[in-house]
Fold:
Amino acid sequence: MWRCLSVLSALHTTPSLRDKNFRDARREPSNVTCAWRDDIITRGRKEDTHGDSLCTLLRSRPGKLPEMPAACESLLDDIEDIVSATDPKPHDRQNARQNIVPRARKRNKNKIQEEEPPADSTIPGTQKIWIRTWGCSHNNSDGEYMAGQLAAYGYSITEQPEQADLWLLNSCTVKSPAEDHFRNSIKKAQEANKKVVLSGCVPQAQPRQEYMKGLSIIGVQQIDRVVEVVEETIKGHSVRLLGQKKDNGKRLGGARLDLPKIRKNPLIEIISINTGCLNACTYCKTKHARGELASYPVEELVDRAAQSFQEGVCEIWLTSEDTGAYGRDIGTDLPTLLWKLVEVIPEGAMLRLGMTNPPYILEHLEEMAKILNHPRVYAFLHIPVQSASDSVLMDMKREYCIADFKRVVDFLKERVPGITIATDIICGFPGETDEDFKETLKLVEEYKFPSLFINQFYPRPGTPAAKMEQVPAHVKKQRTKELSQLFHSYSPYDHKIGEEQHVLVTEESFDSQYYVSHNRFYEQVLVPKDPAFVGKMVEVKIFEAGKHFMKGQPVQDSYIYTPSITKPLAKGEVSGLTEESKPPNNPESLLQTSREGLQTFFFVTALLAAVIAFVGIKLL
Structure:
């Protein structure tokens, strides 16, 4: 029987034999067919005594078999139709199945573990970054923006430098000590095998310093590209972006104001209203970094302020190298901006105006007095005088005389009762004589500034003042000491003991013993450390006064006002991000997201391929 099947198979699969038999069958159909049939029957009986059904079938149709192909097809429709006497019957097969145990599918005992990037991973967005900022509030604002962008991309911002994979060092170039700290931090990072990115005014003004060789630098106007620089640095590349942002050839204020940021204090929004200045002070290195004046449009600044209030901020600081010069490059001015901002400040929230030089506020004194009397604006102004000697001011190229400074201060003190005037003084500027310094002492004695920033002169490289004849170091130190003693000889707040004041609580004191608040005149008042006071306007009674602060006790049964229109962001939370746009909190989540995306991709691809195949079959 099996030989019969072999012959049938050969006829179906061997073209030459099949074609020859076809031709022979057409010429001699009866002889060929019968001979072939008899041979199969004879051999089948000898080799398979159980092929009776097949033999009977063949004998029952003598001489009537069709041509070869038709005969084969009629004899064998399906190989499974051929059975023998020894084959198990269906009943036997059913009984035999009861003893068959299906083989269990093997399972992987070791469950697939969640993939985690190695500790030294170079996958962008999985590293920890430590950010250190020196200097002014403008620099601090830049640091907040860079932190926000990095966190929004997936990087983890840490306060522990030893845990960080990369250090982002945001520098200040005003004084030599600040640059020394910056340089020492670079050395520490390299000794600890940390990746380093430099930013701020020092590398912007002096990018070719030897100690910066081979390190990545991001310029003060390129902070919106910090993610790119960090990515390349982590990969081992050195990147330097120091260009200026321009629009149709006109210099812009800098990076966009609507970038993500992480506020160091979630209750305080620092807004840079312009960058650079109009002056050319002979001692200033900052001008080399920040450049000429470039102001942000009023609308963008108002939008940024409004957004910050929607995130629970209750205090805004306006900052720049010179806020008084705002708008002169774009056809507007500072009072115009301030009146627009006041409109979006919620009741109880406050605005603090940053440093302004005397020349650019003189023409706006009337309007400025009105604004500083507004209940949502601190009666506070920082006006640096630097020296009370006209001769020294001329050498500094300050563009005002001491009479101009006094005019500003006297006018504001008269029109804004209780206003706080803060100022700066440089001791030992090149060419300063004893008589010049005495003029400065007289000025401090006359006005008794409650807030005075005393700076010993440091020649900054590349500035005109560095080339002038220097005052001996011991003389500079002596003058600095003498002025400091004068400043500490008077108590600006003793007369306020017993007063009841409304204060806005915004932060914790350095010693963690009190909460820090400020009254209407931006004078510092320490209050008991009660979490219920944070971000609130509280009424207190002053019971103690020091040189730099007062202490207040909450008035019993007084109303505690909440100026924030919504709950503040958590510390470290990124400003300006919706829940949908926030990145996963950890690398594992990033990997999980990637796997889910791949699974979806492969499923859709397979489904599409199946549809195409189905359509193709139907068309054929």
